[in-house]
Specification:
about 325 residues, alpha/beta, Quinone Oxidoreductase, Chain A, domain 1, Rossmann fold, seven-stranded mixed sheet, six-stranded parallel sheet, about 25% strand
Amino acid sequence: MKAIVYTKYGPPDVLELREVEKPKPKDNELLIKVHASTVTPMDWRFRNGKTLIARFMTGLLKPKTNILGVECAGEVEAVGKDVKPFKKGDQVFAGGPPVGAHAEYICMPEGKAGIKPTNMTYEEAAAVPFGACIALLFLRDYGHIQSGQRVLINGASGGVGTFAVQLAKYFGAEVTGVCSTANLEMVRSIGADRIIDYIKEDFTKNGQTYDIIFDAVGKRSFSQCKNSLNQKGFYLSTVATIPLLLQMLWTSKIGSKRAIFAMPIFQPEDLVFLKDAIEAGKIKTVIDRTYALSDIAEAHRYAEQGHAKGKVVITL
């Protein structure tokens, strides 16, 4: 099968299209014929190897796993002997880690997959499992979002942020989205009650306070956001840094405002929840650009700039 392989850390050009052995599913796995995948921040951070935290996950000197891609949509080609909910021919969407979706086939544990929403294309569905699950877990499980709360999403136009805006509205919050001038109308169109153009206004200095500040792009620190949190408020960030990890420890012991980062742990019921919300018209995917698998270096180059409106999708 064709797959995108990298054997060393570096710029997008380290990604190579190669023929590799087709995987075989374990007893609890699905073999999925991939129709679409995405390039997420996890993919390009794993590829460039610039942060020590990322290298602890992928290998200190060189990548331990050579195929990236943490979410996909496709068709079940085979199932392991212990798999019950799925059968050959099912249309599914799936997300990890594990990685490996930048290939024609991937094996996924059955708990990482769900039946694809009927009202989505493969391209739209591929963008859901990682970005939407992260937004769901951070807001619902870590931030304990409640109806009527004031929630700010920093990076509201990105791959996680677009889902976070929609999910916060789904849970009944009053949502403020922070994005650039070019993305104001798009963020408004997916449900934000108020939009802040970060080029013109610093949300940490305008006197407004929130019950949850979700930094979906990891650009503002807890220290910068602390005064914009209400008492017992939560600062959530998708990007782990040493200062954030220390602040998590500190705020768990002292004060009423919490800083939180956690590795997302996906549950099968989360994909069922998202499928139901999508089919009810409450959540949709925002796709910025679509690339062929052979153009993945260019897709990484674009995604790494950090200006994508929604998701960068790979088609196979």
